[in-house]
Amino acid sequence: MHTSITRKLVNETHNVFVMLQGQVASSTGSNLQSQMVMSSKQYRAILKACSMDLMHMAETCEDEGERESFEDQIQIFEMIQLIWGFCQILFIEVTPDGLLLNQLLDWIKWHFTDGKRLAVDILHDEIPAEHPAYWEAIFRLLLQGEVDSVRKLLSLNTSNQNEAFLSVDELLRKMPQWAHYHHALSAAEFDMKWRHWRDECQRRLEEGHYVAFPNLETLVMVLCGDENVFAEMKDMCGSWYHLLVSKMLYQNPTVRAPDLHHYAEACMEEFTLSGTRMGELDNILLAAIQFDIHQVIKDSSAFLSTGSWWFVSHFTDLLHHCGQLDTQNLAYGSNLREFLLLEYASSLMSHKSLWQVGIDYLDYCSVFGRTYITQFINHMSLDNEKKAHKLLHICEERNMQEEVQTICKVMGMKSLRRGKLGAALSWFLRSRDVTATSKLTERLIMEYSKTGQFEYTDILDNLGPAMFLSNRLTFLVKYREFHKLYESGETNKAASLLLSLLEARLAPRTFWITLFKDATPLLESKEVIFNSGQTYVLMHCLEELRHELDAKTDISQKLTDMEKDKLDLLQLCLTRNLSKAIKAEGTVKTS
Amino acid sequence: MAELSPKFVSQKISKIRWRPVQKQSLKAAEYFVTGSWDDDINKVCLWRLDQSHVKEEITLADNQYGELEPQKVCEIGQDGDVTDLCYVSIENLVSTSSTGSVYLYRQNSQGINVINCWDRLHEFNGQSTPCTCVSSRGDDMIVTGGEDGRLAILNITQTKPVRIIEKADSCTVNSVTFLTQSEILTVNSFGQLKIFDIRVDKEEPTKILSVNEDNTPLHCVDKHPGQPHIVATGGQDGMLTIWDVRKDRFPMTLLEAHSAAMWEVKFHPSNPDHLFTCSEDGSLWHWDGSAMGITQGSLLTGHGLGGSQFPSTHHQTDKISSEASPWISIESSRHKLEINSLLPNKSLPVNSLDIQNYTLLCGTDSETIYTVPLPNLR
């Protein structure tokens, strides 16, 4: 179903579907009904265009197998169009007075075009009246109610000046047609007019005006609605539903939908008697005439859905909104419409590209749609960032916070595994994932201790308030700031920053030694940078560190001798600085 | 305004670009190229649009549905998603792929052919990463950026890259453009605008600008055709930001625009008072700044389609300069900014747009190309 041609069908009808759901939500009453009819026509137009594309492809196709599959598809589409057109008349485009013969005639003319084609051939012929299919064309057109075309053909006959022909022409001219009268007359008045006309036809027939021309006689018998002549005409109709419509035209033009099925069975019998078997299409149409919508949908699902659920799902959705469908719930919790939409959407979700369309359909499945979406999204592969961004938008639009978190985490971990720590950090920050950020930062800190170089400075220097997400991250950013201040020579600021880092206990304990090492050049410099108060704080921190490290009973974590020496040196530095500071503070400055 | 026409093309369009016309030619642009994504086989397709009926004034009666329908001329398959397309000259087309490779195509009477290919141009720790964007300078130089944060400068006639800036960015480079002959401008997933000077040998950018404090990713960038220091970017939050890159860290103006990520922003090449944007929320907007001028008026709240408000955060350190472009003085004349939404119904995301003369093209995730005639562009 999802070949390059039918993909156009999927996308075009998706637009119609979404518009329809929107109109259902916003309009009511007769306004809504006209929207429904328009949507139905749009669906059919798109289907027709697709059919024509397929026909074109089939003609230009060279591969036998491909051509066969095109032709199969075309056939299925033809059946769908027939059914859809018929059901539109019965269920959707219901006229206020309930009369539907005109629409049925239009439907027949649309789908059975042999009569017209023959007529065109004949008109181009030199001597039309002697064309072998002359009378066939006339009868075919007559059965479709194309009165004007029939008159034209008759006027081309050699005997057209004969009384009999003129009489028939008059009858045809005076034939009352509902299309011309339905604004002016009521159904009952029209019926009377029509009966009057038919009586006239019968009278002329009985008086033998047409005995000389057997074909004309048959023609007028048709006009009178004679039962037997229709049995002869069935070949011109080609199918029982054509016969049904033709009969109605000449026997009962004011027929209403619920009464159709009385006549339908007789027509069907005509055909079955002569050996034609009833196929699925016929069963479906019969079920429609009997107003058994569920049967229609069931049979369509069984026979016309092998390629795709496109037809039944859109069709059922339309009927549902027209109020024609029973909203009974099925055993598995949702109604028929939702069930079919879910089937259709699921088939789209398994397609590489059409999943986006599928998600839109799932949005309109109120019971299970959301669950389905969640499931599908969790199984989507996040090939690249752009796709991840799109999926994130889809989740955010539908308030699926958990999925947002999951996607960000997956993207972050992917970047992490490939060593793109910068990108990973940006993903974790986006989802405000504290644990992951902390872990990542610890890794960055460790890398710094190993290499002495800061990576990803373009991120670290520009984090803004995001740095407060995790303590570790705040520390790292501030630490980097300290280095920048130190390098640019702003030692006082650097010193107070370093002090606050230690005081706030933001750094991991293991890093304190490094911090102290960074402090050493500041302590050793000639100027007094750390005043006495600050030095006391530093000493306090050092003590704390020593205590903690000493208190560890695990031998492997005990300080090595070298480290103990370092701490002692540090103690010495601090003491020296303290003395410097006290001296400086105690000195009276001479101005 | 004449009707726009959709064309269903059976593949999701990721990029759409007009083919440039001869400089002296007065003909309207005829050919355009599209790239697809997220399909089993992705393609680069060349289309032809017969625009001989498009005149300055088009009445509704003149225009028929079928007149502006593009016809496919030829196509070629490509590995991976097509992530960006760029015409270097009339015959040479560069396409970048999500496999990290970059391809050079040329069209002749038989169709499109690959002339050159830089395989795995973008990779990280040995694994290929998607290449995300490309921009060209003159007839032969291009620069590409990717998810690996690398910038590669290539000459299309050579197989080895001219220069690779390995660590240009810690995050993904989403879009790149040549600002001047020697400067490259990039935007990344961390909301930063970076300017690189390629004459200098170091890897750090000469300038880094940030869109806001939340570091929302920036997806697209375009420079003003006449004044390259004016740059427009679009971000993950759908905001349109206008920058003067000579100035400080933050943008000149931020305009709340779309309700989802903005994928592409473009100044009209010959009429830069007009700007176009398209977004993940399925809309395509035309920003008409031609009525804005330099005025001394007080600040007024803006208006746009549907009564949406345009609050702006404005970091202005200098006085308004007296240059001719209305985009700089947008603060005091924003109420004259007209914004039109060009697509009738919002549906699936619009990924890409391109504009030349009087016709705008866009490609969407609902596998549609829209041709939008804009006869009234002043």
TrEMBL record, chain A:
Compartments reported by the entry: Nucleus, Nuclear pore complex
Keyword field: Membrane, mRNA transport, Nuclear pore complex, Nucleus, Protein transport, Translocation, Transport
GO cellular component: nuclear membrane; nuclear pore outer ring
Gene Ontology MF: a single term: structural constituent of nuclear pore
UniProt-listed InterPro entries: Nucleoporin_Nup85
Biological processes per GO annotation: mRNA export from nucleus; positive regulation of DNA-templated transcription; protein import into nucleus
Similarity remark: Belongs to the nucleoporin Nup85 family.
PANTHER family membership: FROUNT PROTEIN-RELATED, NUCLEAR PORE COMPLEX PROTEIN NUP85
Record's subunit section: Component of the nuclear pore complex (NPC).
Role description: Functions as a component of the nuclear pore complex (NPC).
Protein name in the entry: Nuclear pore complex protein Nup85
Organism annotation: Patella caerulea
TrEMBL record, chain B:
The keyword Repeat appears for this protein: yes
CC terms in the record's Gene Ontology section: nuclear pore outer ring
WD repeat spans: 231-253, 255-288
Keyword annotations of the record: Nucleus, Repeat, WD repeat
Pfam families in UniProt: WD40
SMART domains membership: WD40
Gene3D superfamilies: YVTN repeat-like/Quinoprotein amine dehydrogenase
Record carries keyword Repeat: yes
Subcellular localization, as worded in the UniProt entry: Nucleus
Protein name: Nucleoporin Nup43
Lineage summary: Eukaryota, Metazoa, Spiralia, Lophotrochozoa, Mollusca
